[in-house]
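Archive entry: two folds, one per protein. Generate the first.
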Amino acid sequence: MGQSQGHHPERSVAAPRQAQFSAGGPAALPAVSAVMPVRDEEKHLAESVRQVLAQDYPGGLELILAVGPSRDRTEPIARQIAAADDRVTVVPNPSGKISSAMNAAIKAARHGVITRIDGHAMLPAGYLRTAVLTLIETGAADVGGVMAAEGVTPFQQAVAWAMTSPAGVGAAANHTGGEAGPADTVYLGVYRREAIEKAGGYDETMLVAEDWELNYRIRAGGGLIWFTPELQVTYRPRANLRTLARQHFRYGRWRRVVARRYPETVNPRYLAAPAAAALNGLGCVLGAAGLAGIAAQAPPFVRYMALGLVIPAIYLAGVTAVAAVFARDLPTAVRARVPVVLAAMHMCWGAGFVTSPRRLAQPEGPQ
């Protein structure tokens, strides 16, 4: 995002301010409501819940599972967990949207601190204690850290490298890390409930980027979003090229929604992938026309269009060079996949941004 104070309402309150909670000691820590939107999470749900409930947090903890329509055993597993532990509550989320799941879970929550947790996220030990202490010390409205992508297969490891590298996602601290301080958004997030309510809750027209959009409204209302690199949550990347491409196409589509709604947030980092996708697309179209012209012995100006293929060739050479130079410490099987992963992330995100229809995020339109 842009760096002016107008783009960052929280810059004026970057210094820690007086906390609204008592910071007298561990026993004074406020109780936390952990909220988890879940759908098709049979594989990871039980372990994710276990790591939440095992947190060494002295202030009191409850967990609300907002369960969407699933094609697996997510709902039965969630209800078994709730039946076995009275700290866990299950609420329905008929729409399956993350934003509506968050609103339903927050409505059912009892406490003044709300932490979002994904159904496949694995919280490290001490996560809640560190996050809430940071919330108190900084006076922030929302505190969070890094989506620490870790892969298992060579493809996932290549995606993890790209997700934690400026070559893949730009300089976003919630992906690449950095120093503690004010931020546009953070991964997951530990919120003061009052900040969410003051901002009007999650926008249920947003299918993607719902956290970013809420955090923007919190910042616009004077709230501080605080990034701390101490909070690192393990994230498992997509397992194959098809699902990675689909994920980033959706990201691009919905980031365009954010850009339309808040044009002041657009900066060159956001426009890099759309520009690259548009240029590569144009180069491929011109190149194909030129090759067809050569085959048909068309006039010279048509055949010269084949030079358009230079554009995607330069791009491919660039991502290959990035892998060769910056990913040289990776195993060969992983490094070999990095150019394909980078190209998929850039091109699909950019294509989604360029083709994003205006009907998205309109309550009266199809979602």
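Generate the second and append.
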Amino acid sequence: MESLKITFPGAGGEALAARLEMPAGRPTAYALFAHCFTCGKDSRAAVQIARALAARGIATLRFDFTGLGGSGGDFANTHFSANVADLVAAADWLRREHQAPALMIGHSLGGAAILAAAGQVAECKAVATIAAPADAEHVLHNFHAALPEIEAKGEAAVTLGGRSFTIRRAFLDDVKAQAQQDHIAQLRRALLVLHAPTDAVVGIDNATRIFTAAKHPKSFVSLADADHLLSRPADGEYAAGVIAAWAQRYLPAAAAAPAAEPAGHADRVVVEETGAGKLQVRVQVGPHGFLADEPVALGGLGSGPNPYDLLCAALGACKSMTMRLYAERKGWPLTRAHVAVRHGRVHAADCADCETREGRVDEFTCEIALEGPLDDEQRARIFEIAERCPVHRTLTGEIKIRASLTPAE
């Protein structure tokens, strides 16, 4: 993957700072992400979700709204409508330089802004909100104590997230004037609402109101015990995974069937360098693609499993599948098989059952757990069958590897 640092003109002409997270291969689609109120493009949720989507093939643009982070302009002169206009400008930039966003995602107030902006981006097919308020006016609770001063003096300095911001009366008037329920009702895009029932900043009732106002197709996913800012990495990864999987039905490029393997090569695995980092490669197995890499400590980006991880995965998957098929054929109550595989190298002299007596020997250790009301005889037999799985037999049998050098294209 690659993170591109870019700048594009906002709705008011200010230079907006942005990052475009690009997947290793050709993007299946482009997405636009809107951050939470005063957060910025480099907030934990914005970075994690954008990169997780890129890892799944969806190029994602995240940027700082006017007056925030690395973007130009004065935050005090902005309001909710200005954020919406910046989102439309971001979509315009993507359309000019790459491809218009088919997916638009917003976190917290950014979610409200996305709901208002999506209708102005014709190519947008799907919208996802994360912990979004049903009304833009909800943001006022962040500085409720300063509202009398803002009304009386026209502005006031408020502290949000440990930083000081000037909020003016025009901001209050703008959020109060938003017809957000109309924006939601007239969205005419597939909608995914993600919200935590325990969100202490934007209550779950907001998700209910958004979902109720929207027309089908619409979906709701609970973020369980996540906090409002998705502070735990696992919550951001989960949200990104759900969004990417849900969006597949609606993204035009992703909806197309995968290209078929060339005739005569349906059984081959293709591996090629991505150009990202020194060691990252993309592995294509028929219609399935993923990254392989090495850890950062070994010169890689840590963006995927290493070659021995993949070999361990092949062995573990084969054992699991073999045990499942055997148990099903026998009608035995195997609820779940769990296989943990590790690879290492040991001194041949320390290996009592190895034919090689010098140097080192590759060793795979497999720990197998079988769940379900199996008796001891059934467990022993299933374990014995696992030792006969095809990959196990391949690794312990005679292997020939024949390589050829093909002409450069």
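Annotation attached to the second fold: The first helix runs from residue 44 to 55. The longest strand covers residues 336-347.
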